[in-house]
Amino acid sequence: MSQQVRGVVVTAEDAPAEVTTIVIPDPGPGEAVVKIQACGVCHTDLHYKQGGIGDEFPYLLGHEAAGIVESVGEGVSEVGVGDFVVLNWRAVCGQCRACRRGRPQYCFDTHNARQKMTLEDGTELSPALGIGAFAEKTLVAAGQCTKVDPGVSPAVAGLLGCGVMAGIGAAINTGQVGRGDSVAVIGCGGVGGAAITGSRLAGAARIIAVDIDDNKLQTARALGATHTVNSRKQDAVEAIRELTGGNGADVVVEAVGRPETYEQAFYARDLAGTVVLVGVPTPDMRVELPLLDVFGRGGALKSSWYGDCLPSRDFPMLIDLHQQGRLDLGAFVTETVGLGDVEKAFARMHDGDVLRSVVVL
Ligand code: APR
Ligand code: ZN
Ligand code: ZN
């Protein structure tokens, strides 16, 4: 028995994101239907709409979500009906070499729900990042659900499903920021802002925020930056060096995803420092670096995929810290909106005046 609910769908490149009726099948083996309570609006949703991720229209948008498990299919043991869960992009297999070596972040055989949600006429939907959570309900693989404490607000919990986790994870998991470190974060949107928060959490002594927008730098201070640099007005590399006793930062997080900011990150790190690329580049982008500088500066050049997170470890931990008052995830929720407001949220995102708009159902 399938059911019909409302969801936000884009039918063709640059067509408006519209609320329409979608059909959700009963969960099959290994699947779950989740009643969505909140879902953050992320740049990736906009990229789907613009055709920047693929052309498998129609897309069901939304992927930073939390909700309640409504039903589960055969053989599901990860979660049960009534559980409050945060969704992640992909369930891991638990069997491949990466999983067996304790690095499921790099699982070779991740999966989403095997059945398809559809439009009323039977057209199959492509759910954004295998989730599709701008909807009253969605169908996912049970392994995409991580049970967390139901005492936290869904708007806050959902953020861990993507950008905020990516940023916090870039600092604490990938960058391994430690007590007393100096950290520079280039790009202070939702992801960079979360990297600042993560660095503070990890005990960094100095957190230098770099952006081209003074409003973002102000937000960065509220999130824990100790120093700010507007790289339109100042040379970012020189400013970071100056603020770190001439050395450069122990960890530099690049949260823009552009060649020029990556180059800044490369030269702003201390000898033997770490550069973490968490901003997502486009396929045409190239950086050219003198190999002697790569050799001579040592350290580590890393990339951070989904904040190198393990949902089952990191989601409950971060929610715990939030509830204890040691991590303010609420600071990332700029506004809450309705299911019909996704287009408006895209426009505000474009204007750059929000960290996150969150659709609340
Ligand atoms: N130098 C410094 N900061 C810059 C520059 C630049 N040349 N260009 C843009 N920025 C800043 C913007 O002013 C903004 O504050 O980078 C920030 C980007 O933030 P958002 O647009 O909110 O993007 P966010 O959601 O944080 O994602 C950042 O990570 O996940 C990826 O696809 C995402 O590549 C994107 C990046
Ligand atoms: Zn996202
Ligand atoms: Zn695996």
TrEMBL record:
One Pfam family matching this protein: ADH_zinc_N
CDD domains documented for this protein: Zn_ADH_class_III
Alphabetized InterPro entries for the sequence: ADH-like_C, ADH-like_N, ADH_Zn_CS, ER, GroES-like_sf, MycoS_dep_FDH, NAD(P)-bd_dom_sf
Cofactor list: Zn(2+)
GO molecular function: oxidoreductase activity; zinc ion binding
Record's keyword terms, sorted: Metal-binding, Oxidoreductase, Plasmid, Zinc
Domain Enoyl reductase (ER) positions: 17-361
Family: Belongs to the zinc-containing alcohol dehydrogenase family.
PANTHER family per UniProt: NAD-DEPENDENT ALCOHOL DEHYDROGENASE, S-NITROSOMYCOTHIOL REDUCTASE MSCR
Protein name (database record): S-(Hydroxymethyl)mycothiol dehydrogenase
Lineage summary: Bacteria, Bacillati, Actinomycetota, Actinomycetes, Kitasatosporales
